[in-house]
Amino acid sequence: MKKVLFFLAFLLVTLNLPAQVNGDTLTVDGKKILRIWGSHYDRGYAHGYLMGDQIREIAIDYFIATFILNNPVTYNFCRNYFADHFTIENRYLNEVEGIIDGMTAAGTNMYITALDKDIESVDILIANSIVDLSILNFINSSEELGCSSLSAWGESTENDDDLNGNLVLTRNMDWSLHPVLLENHLLIVNIPTEENEISWVSFTFPGLIGALSGINSIGTAAFMNVGNIHSYSNVNDLHPIFLSVRNGLEHYDYNFDGAQNELDVIASVSGVNHLSGSIIHVINDPEAAIIETNNLLGSVTRYSSDNSVIPDFNLVATNHFRTLYAPVYCYRYNNFADSLNYSIQQSIERNWNITTGAGGVNQNLHTIQFIPSLNLIKWSTAGYGHPAYTLQPTEFNLEELLTINSAVENFIIDEPVKVTTFPNPFIGGTQFSFSLIESVKADLNIYNIKGQKIRTLVCGETIKKDSSIYWDGRDEKGNLVVSGIYFYYFRSKEITESGRMVVLK
Predict the structure, then answer these.
(1) CATH classification of 418-503, choosing from 2.60.40.4070, 3.30.70.600, 2.40.420.20, 2.10.10.20?
(2) pLDDT tens across 169-197, in order?
């Protein structure tokens, strides 16, 4: 099978934003990618600045409407419980403060009508703890939260020419098919500058900073499933499971054993107290393990040697404990067992097909496959009426995802400004003025805050050295744009320049 390991052709929109916005957005096959770099605050600021409207939409239309039921009393119970029982590291407090600051700077409407308040940093943290909080009786927990995954290696993959005995994992992330989630699939590329942290990617949604499905630059990957038993007795110093998994992926050596691998995620999950039950499938080729954890019994780790109905050199995770508690019936786990007992031999394609065939359900939001030895990621996202596993995945190269494109630096210049806009901010329209040494052939495009091109003002035409061009505040279809932040991007053979504009109503 021919390997397609390079980054597919993509639309890159990197604008000369204010210096504090350490981020850019890409769109690949319709899938949004947010790349952020710097300190936790820097990354949070860029996250909020570039995805503010989407964060607001998910917070209001999904988390508050679905779990809180737009009820201020329920919200206050939830907020107070979180403040009294959860402990959050300073780095994450800084990150969510950055998100709020970035959203505010971008002009995002922060007001929540149902709660009669603005979005605050604690609301971002509560959203990142919703799996934990959803087991409490004052939270609506009717959402169908599923997930399943299969990892295979060694004897299971040794006869495949592409795998050659190396590890492959496919994961179904099953959640609500809420319209706001279907519209906001997001791959976040985190590139930290902290000395003890490493780069990692997260398959997620705007505003979620924890790790539901994550892979780091070393090749350690972790995929979290909801467990089936949530008994609890100790509600002190609770930690959100998403942030616990992130700790193990993002810290270079969480357990201080001199290496970064699956043991760091095991340590980061096992070493803290969680409110809900979870099952985390973690890999670092050639090792794979499944962490089973809940509040009452703590954590255990399951390996392929613990399998009873699944053959060795394979691990399967669904939503049912198998070691922390005695196994109960799970039709998906039995489907996996039937396929693997028929034949353990797996190619990249068969591993995908077994996982989607045995575990595919209607509320499947993401299907992800990772082959560490090839740096290959496949990601499929659900659409309206189409579970993710039924759709063609997009292929990514992990190493390329984690590299800040050199074009970012090329777009930022220290030369005197050659393009100015006046008025800015403006109502109705604005004038572009050019201070050029000589006439040039150039492009001049307008982008919205999402990185989408909305208007081409000049395309390969000659711009005279002291000329001006008027933008009437309309998009390509002739519609007036909504109020907010927009960017112009001017490019000729010798000059690249961009800037921000604010449209008022």
Answers:
(1) 2.60.40.4070
(2) 999 999 889 999 999 999 999 999 998 99
